[in-house]
Amino acid sequence: MNVMFRSLAFITAVVIAVLIAFNIWLSKTVSSRSDERNITINSINLELSEILSEHPEDPSELISEKLPEWRRIYGADVPDKIEFIPIKADAKQFISSSDSDTSVCTVRNGNDELLGVVLYTCKNSYYLKIRIVLCCVIIAFWMLICGVLLYIHFRILAPFKKLADYPAHIAKIPTAEKLPESRNKYFGKFIWGMNMLTDVLQTERRQNEKLEYQRQTLIASIAHGVKTPVTNISLYADAIETGLYSDHVDIAQKIRNNTKKIEALTAELIGTASESVNAYIPEISKFYLRELCELTLSEFAGRMKISMIPFDVSCSGDPMIESDKYGLFRIISQLIENAVKYGNGQGISVAMRRQDDGTSISVRNKGQLLPESELPFVFGSFWRGSNSRNTEGSGIGLFISQKIAAALGGSVYVRRLPETEEMEFTIFINA
Predict the structure, then answer these.
(1) 291 vs 313: CA distance, rounded Å
(2) Do 194 and 184 contact (CB within 8 A), yes or no?
(3) What does the domain layout of the chain look like in residue ranges?
C-alpha cells in the first residue's frame, strides 16, 4: 500500500508542476501578446487622430477604409473591432469599459479638442478558454491515471499478494484449507484451479498413506508366508539329495504345493502393486479431438526435435468427443515413451480419427518387432518383452494404460506391421 501511495503522490506532484508551468507560460504569452497589441493600438490611434483632425466628417467610414491597410501593416495585432464614438465638448457622457478585451482611447484635433473616443476590441477570451480546457484535460488525465492505479492495486495486486504464498503453503501443509471461492475475473479461475490441485494433492496423500500401509503389511505378510514354503522346499531337496525319500511322486507333490503358496503370495503382491491404477477415476467432459492432438504435439515436438526423431501427429477433422482428455493423453504419453525407448529413432507417428462406432488413436514406431507369440502378454503386469534387454523399465506402463482405457470404456490393441517394420498400438474408445 505504501508503494501505491508513493506512486499517487509522485503522479500528483508531476501533474501540479505541469499545471503551474502551463499557467505561467500561458500568462506570459497573454501578457506579451497584450503588450504587442497595445503598441499597435497606440500607433493606430495616433494615426487616426491625425486624420480625423483634418477630416472629421465620417470617422466610421474612414476607419473601414483604413482597416485593410492596418491589417496588412500590423497583421494579427490589429484589434478585431474598431469603433468611433463622437463626444461633444459639453457632453456629460462617461465612457468606460468593464470588458478586459476592450481598450478605450480618446481622439483630439489639432486644438486639443476632444472629438470622441475609439473602442478597440480584441478577443482575448479564447486564451481563457484554452486555459480552462487544457487544465480540465490535465486534471481528467490525472484522475484517470489514479483510477487505473487504484483499480490495478485493489483488483489485481492486492488479491495476488494474498494468493502468492498459497502454493508454498499447501506444499508444506498438505491439509491446508482451500482458498475461498471468488468471482474475481482475474483470479477466479486460478483459485478454482488451486483448490482442485489441493484436492488432488490431498487425495494422493491419503492414497499414498494407504498404499504405504498396505505395502508394509504385505511385505511383513510375504516375509512370514514365504519363509515356511521355502524352508519346506529346502528340506525336501535335502531329503531327495540324501535319499531319505524313496517316493519321489509324493515329495514332488509336496514341493508343488509349497510352490503354489509362493505363487499365491506373488500374485497378491502384484495385485497390491497395481491397486493405485485401479483407483483411477475418469473426469469426463466434452472436447474437440484436435485439442488432444495439439496437446500431444506441444508436449513432445520439442523433445523429438532435440532427439532428432521424426515425429508426426495428425488429426482427421475436428470432431467433438466426450471422454477424459488427460486420461487419454496419459495413455498416449506412455505409448510414445515406449516408442522412444524401444524404437530405432527412425520415426514415430500419432494418428487420431473419428470412426462410426468410436474414436481411435494409433501410435506407430519403427524398430525391432515383437514376436507374434509375445503380443498377447504385452499388457500384463510386470511383463517385459524380448526386445527389452539392456533397456530400463518396470513392465507396468502398458498394464496401466490398458486399465485407464478400460475405465474410459475402451481398450488398447497391438499389432505388428512387418511390411513397414513398425509396431502399432491403437487406443479405441466408444466416444
Answers:
(1) 12
(2) no
(3) 2-127, 188-273, 285-429
What residue type is assigned to position 235 of the chain?
L
State the architecture of 285-429 in CATH terms: 2-Layer Sandwich (3.30)
For residue 356, which phi and psi values (nearest 5 degrees)?
-60, -40
Nearest to 431 by CA among 350, 353, 326: 353
Topology of domain 188-273 in CATH is: Helix Hairpins (1.10.287)
Longest Cα pair distance anywhere in the chain, in angstroms? 169
Contact between 31 and 161 (Cβ < 8 Å)? no
Q: What are the C-alpha distances in Å from 193 to residues 165, 171, 178, 314, 328?
A: 15, 15, 11, 30, 20
C-alpha cell at 370: 515383437
Predicted confidence band at 336 (pLDDT cuts at 50, 70, 90)? very high
The helix/strand/coil state of 236 is helix
For residue 95, pLDDT over 90 is answered with no
Contact call for residues 285 and 322 (beta carbons, < 8 A): yes
Domains 188-273 and 285-429 share a fold: no
Alpha-carbon distance of 121 to 103, in angstroms, equals 6
Cell 483632425 sits on residue: 53
Contacts of 117 (CB under 8 A, 6+ apart): 84, 85, 87, 95, 104, 105, 106, 107
Nearest to 336 by CA among 367, 296, 395: 296
Residue 14: band (very low, low, confident or very high) from pLDDT cuts 50, 70, 90: confident
- AA identity, residue 21: A
CB 274 within 8 A of CB 211: no
Across the range 91-107, mean pLDDT stands at 61
- Over residues 275-279, the mean pLDDT reads 53
Are 42 and 79 a contacting pair, CB within 8 Å? no
| Burial of residue 321 (number of CB atoms within 10 Å: 0-12, 13-18, 19+) | buried
Distance (Å, whole) CA 297 – CA 62: 91
Cα 246 to Cα 248: distance, rounded to the nearest angstrom? 6
The beta strands (E) that lie in 39-156 are given as 81-86, 102-108, 114-121
Lowest average pLDDT, out of 351-360, 382-391, 400-409, goes to 382-391
